[in-house]
Design a protein that fits this description.
Number of strands of chain A: 9
Structural class of chain B: mainly alpha
Radius of gyration of chain B: 19 Å
Structural class of chain A: mainly alpha
CATH architecture of chain B: Orthogonal Bundle
CATH superfamily of chain B: Cytochrome c-like domain
Number of strands of chain B: 2
Order of helices and strands of chain A: HEEHHHHHEEHHHHEEEEHHE
Order of helices and strands of chain B: HEEHHHH
Radius of gyration of chain A: 21 Å
Helix content of chain A: 40-55%
CATH topology of chain B: Cytochrome Bc1 Complex, Chain D, domain 2
Helix content of chain B: 25-40%
Largest interface: A-B, 24 and 23 residues
Strand content of chain B: 5-15%
Number of helices of chain A: 12
Number of helices of chain B: 5
Strand order of the largest sheet of chain A: 8-7-9
Oligomer: heterodimer
Number of domains of chain A: 1
Number of domains of chain B: 1
Largest sheet of chain A: 3 strands, mixed
Shape of chain B: globular
CATH topology of chain A: Cytochrome Bc1 Complex, Chain D, domain 2
Shape of chain A: globular
Strand order of the largest sheet of chain B: 1-2
CATH superfamily of chain A: Cytochrome c-like domain
Distance between the termini of chain A: 64 Å
Strand content of chain A: 5-15%
Chain lengths: 274, 156
């Protein structure tokens, strides 16, 4: 009598296969395209809505999304020991897919230790210094972008959920003031472009609401992944204002305010933008 | 009897005129820029002694580092295929706005509407965080403002 694999064995084999494949699937999947309505909450519209179809498709396919190169680098850094304590992120946090789920959606957030609101990049660097005995990554370095992108990816699809009350409130107010203040030789505020004139054309570009739920983002103009603060600096320069240094508290406060405008929008990191 | 009444009326008229004048006339002194007087939503007097040149104005309007007007406004200019629509279409603007009205709108449209995104092209004071290379400089010189005004007034 020949042994034939029973249906049970086949199912078990398939299940095992899926289990082994799962780690790959978690970080690299072709997401089922969500309806456009998923990218809007009330009046708040993700930059995704302002993209044309090919770019939406590029973002939604992890194999064609160039931001995934940064994700992969970040994934490698996650488990690479660094610093005098011989630890990696993984040493304490184990699998990022579980431990980092939802974290990116909550940043910037108040940090009791430093007594101020900090962003995700600063949180990562704080961990490196305090827990790993490692040097902080430089702002906008490939490493910091990669790790931030990888951590934020773990919240993909979750709603932006920043806290603007309590000890974070003063920073939120400062961020709103920055947002509403006309700057530079052109005397243009964030609000004028991204609230008053969102949806209008600036030459052939459509002004978006300037939402940050997709950051760090792969920007075609940069041919690279970049941070929210890099985008702020670009906007400031465009209105002929002096861009602030990376990591300045004013920019972190602004990050919080802008994130709060898009409260509830899905995290899209790594998004693709023009 | 007539004389005193007339003189009282004249005095009242003069007072009224002063009232209107003080409410609608503002002299603007902005650092080293040419001072100008705003009267009822206009700047009646040219900023310079040299009349504006419409051809030079057209070049400024198209230049991305000067007027860059096309970024926000549709204008009747050939080969400018992708104008913005942040501001109104300027076709015919010279027909419904006077030279004096156009001048104020270029110099500082925020004196008409403080919330407008339209940059003040001839202003230095009261700006925030201006990039170092632009500190103390207006976007356009007084003569460039006059050139743009001259160009816009031809759009009828």
């Amino acid at each position: 009598m020949r042994l034939r694999p029973s249906p049970l064995v086949i199912v078990a084999t398939l299940a095992l296969g899926v289990l082994f494949l799962k780690p790959i699937l978690v970080t690299s999947q072709t997401t089922t395209p969500a309806p456009l309505s998923a990218y809007q909450v009330g009046k708040e519209k993700s930059g995704f809505i302002y993209l044309d179809a090919p770019l939406r498709a590029m973002q939604n396919d992890d194999f064609s999304n160039p931001g995934y190169l940064w994700v992969q680098k970040g994934q490698a850094l996650w488990s690479t020991a660094d610093g005098t304590n011989g630890k990696s992120c993984q040493t304490c946090h184990s699998a990022a897919e579980t431990s980092m789920r939802g974290v990116g959606a909550r940043y910037p957030a108040y940090d009791p230790k430093s007594g101020k609101v900090i962003d995700l990049e600063q949180r990562i660097n704080e961990m490196r210094v305090d827990m790993m005995g490692a040097k902080p990554y430089k702002w906008e370095s490939p490493q910091l972008l990669a790790l931030t992108t990888f951590v934020k990816l773990q919240s993909r699809g979750m709603p932006v959920d920043v806290t603007t009350t309590g000890p974070a409130h003063a920073a939120w107010v400062a961020g709103k003031t920055f947002y509403d203040t006309p700057r530079g030789q052109l005397g243009v505020s964030c609000q004028m472009c991204h609230v008053q004139h969102a949806g209008d054309q600036l030459r052939s570009d459509t002004l978006s609401q300037g939402q940050t739920n997709g950051f760090p983002t792969y920007r075609l103009k940069w041919q690279a992944v970049g941070s929210v603060q890099r985008r702020f600096r670009g906007c400031n320069a465009k209105v002929r204002a002096q861009p602030l240094p990376f990591g300045s508290q004013q920019y972190v406060d602004l990050e919080l305010y802008v994130a709060s405008r898009g409260q509830g929008l899905p995290i899209e990191t790594p998004s693709v933008r023009r | 009897m007539c004389e005193p009444r007339r003189s009282i009326a004249a005095a009242i008229f003069a007072l009224l005129c002063m009232g209107i004048a003080s409410a609608s006339t503002t002299v603007v002194h902005d650092t080293t820029l040419v001072p100008y007087t705003v009267v009822n939503g206009t700047i009646p007097r040219s900023l310079t002694a040299v009349p504006g040149n419409p051809a030079a104005g057209l070049a400024i309007v198209k230049n991305r580092k000067l007027g860059n007007c096309i970024a926000c406004h549709s204008m009747p200019i050939a080969k400018e295929a992708f104008p913005g629509n942040v501001g109104p279409n300027l076709k015919g603007v010279g027909g419904y706005l006077s030279v004096a009205q156009l001048r104020l709108r270029i110099v500082n449209a925020k004196l008409i509407n403080p919330d407008t995104i339209m940059p003040a092209y001839y202003r230095v004071a009261g700006l925030t965080d201006v990039a170092k290379k632009f500190v103390g400089k207006p976007i356009l010189t007084a003569q460039q403002v006059e050139d743009v005004v001259a160009y816009l007034s031809t759009l009828k």
